[in-house]
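Whether sequence alone determines local backbone shape is best considered at the level of individual chains. In the encoding step, the backbone of a single protein was reduced to a row of integers, each denoting a local shape. For completeness, the protein is quoted in full, as a sequence line and a line of structure tokens.
***
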Amino acid sequence: MSSPWQRPSPTQSEQRRDIILGLVMAVAGVIGTELAKGTSPGPVEMGLGGVEAYFLSAAIALPLCFRRRYPLTVLLTVSVLFVLAGERTPFAFAGSLVTQAAQFMAIYAAVAWSRDRRRMKIAVVVVFAGMFCWLFYGFLKALREDTIQGADQGVLSPYVSFVILNFAINVLYFFGAYFWGLTSWRVAKQRDELEQQAAELAAQQQANARRAVIDERLRISRELHDVVAHHISSIGVQAGGARRVMETDPDAAKNALSVIENSSRTAVNEMRQLLGMLRAADPDLDLDGPELKEPQAGADRLPGLVASVSGDHLSVGFHQIGAPVPLPETVSVSVYRIAQEALTNVRRHSTARSAHVTLRYLGEAAVEVEVIDDGRPKHAPVGSRLGHVGIRERVGLLGGESEIGPRPVGGFRVRARIPLAPATNLVKENSGD
């Protein structure tokens, strides 16, 4: 459960403005008291030493210097001084707008700026109860002393009219300050929440951007691994064979060198295609050359892949099942790369003498590629373990399922089924690269 929202503490600028406000209102209170004294039709009671009225007029405003920093303390202090001024210097209390404004602003600040909402509500209830009790005490005092006189020309008596009018004014005064402060607090809360949401959204956008960069790096890593590993592996095997038969069988060595030449050219061509694909998002970048316009690797090139891999030490067959259907480019490229990676692993990490690639078109629902061999893992150091990870990532991104691991009857199987429509990922993993 999240903690209740708390309004941030006032800034240094807001506190400076409060101090200026409190001082200005204190001076205005003294001036207002003097003006009320000068316009009074009769003698007035100035209190102790003839200065109590001036003192209370200033004292009731000075706590406003801290109205946002200590709102509840200011509310209680101003409320006590408010009642004291009303009892000790009634003429100044009634004639000074500063006194009325100070109490109003104290209530507003307490509701708008109090961080502890429970204590705020208790303080407001205490102050309101005290104020209305004091108000009704004044009504009873006026009734007892019969100080409310009038022409008695209305429907209600002068006293009843006085009570209703003053009660209504006080209700509007006190509850108006309360609801104004509550509105300010809610606006501040909403503004803070919007700022937090904006910050969270910005952080989420940054996280998404970082994730996009990571995904792009993984894609680049996977493509580079698929392109380079296959052809470098082929070049390494052919070079080793050429070295062994260079003196005893020059023709075989020449054939191996020819394969190396073709593999290196194909690798360069596919590398240029890969670079073109990675830069395709920026129309301002252009890589000249006819290679970029050649078709990318796809399922239709599997027979050529099988022919290029098959040789003296590894016999690779190919079989296609089902009527071919048009494949999305991403699916077609993935089928080719999965078969390419599987055959590369057979040559590099297996004792297999034969392998078989099967391409199955399962109607318009899915396409399946399977590579099986009859060997077992070599005891030589294993590879980077990126090949099978790349296969799983490809299949997972396309919503398919993969099965990678040893066969019960011997050998190894790499099988990937990719739906031609969106589907739920189901990855079945038996082994790593």
The first helix runs from residue 12 to 39. Residues 150 and 317 are 117 Å apart (CA to CA). The mean pLDDT is 81. The first strand starts at residue 315 and ends at 321.
